[in-house]
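Run log, item B.
One chain of 322 residues. Sequence copied directly from the ordering sheet:
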Amino acid sequence: MIRKLSVVIPVFRGASTIGPLVERLEADDLLLKERELEIVLVNDGSPDNSGAVCRALANARPHVRFIDLSRNFGEHNAVMAGLNHCSGDAAVILDDDFQNPPCEVRKLVDKLGEGFDVVWSRYEVKRHGWFRNLGSRFNDSVATLMLGKPRGLYLSSFKAISRFVIDEVVRYRGPFPYLDGLVLRITRNYTTVLVQHDARQEGKSGYTLRKLVSLWLNMFTGFSVLPLRLASFAGITVALIGALLGVWFLIERLNHPEIPSGWASIIVTVLIVSGIQLLVLGVIGEYLGRLFLQDNGRQQFVVRGRVNCGGGAGDDKARNET
């Protein structure tokens, strides 16, 4: 039975939408039937006045918690900050842009109450831009390969997770979290629910090409050693091709000694081999670099201030989370 529900909302450039979003959640009588609502707002270093708006909402509402991050750490890091500060029996992760209507939250919560650990949303039509949709499809294909995700499962950011999953997820202290990868590593007791997906009301998506690549690398190198195995396979493949070409060149030379040595074949071979070597070194370097940053104490997130987080005198004071 879900008696207390936490709604975790990472906020970035959401000054104009976060107030109406909180009000819509509070006005949903069906969602609040037999449930206590807790709203956790995480300002992810937003350059507008989102932090001030969130702080005002938390000061006026005891059931709204506010976590102010010291800079922009990224959506998944902001969600991890929210999960570390939520106290509900379950949590729903909801974006601040109204593309997922607040009234759809109860669908996920009701399904979660049937005994599932995770309920992902799925859409008949996605209202993201073409670039975001392209990135999502690519990320979905990589997740299927890297994480063993079923092909029919769409890893939406709009999802509900149980207290059990929350407690296990927040054990991860690495600086490069990928939430869906963590969830799939914990449980296979999940399902999906069809929900509505609306067009973005204001502004544009904060996911730039750089952020999409960073998120992909978090999944690519943080939850699987498959890239290293692929690199080894590529090296073996190129070595075999080189051996076969060597035999073929030797036979051609014996059968046709008048044919001059082929500079083109030498250059092509060198370029292929050196390219594979650089690729392998790059993959190994990415793994080592992330291990170095983690060992060097890079934070998952840093909290500048908090409101209504149950910290007593610690509320609204600087606090580091590593």
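Observations after the first pass:
- DSSP finds eleven helices and nine strands in the chain.
- Residues 317-322 have pLDDT under 50 and may be disordered.
Flagged for discussion on Thursday.
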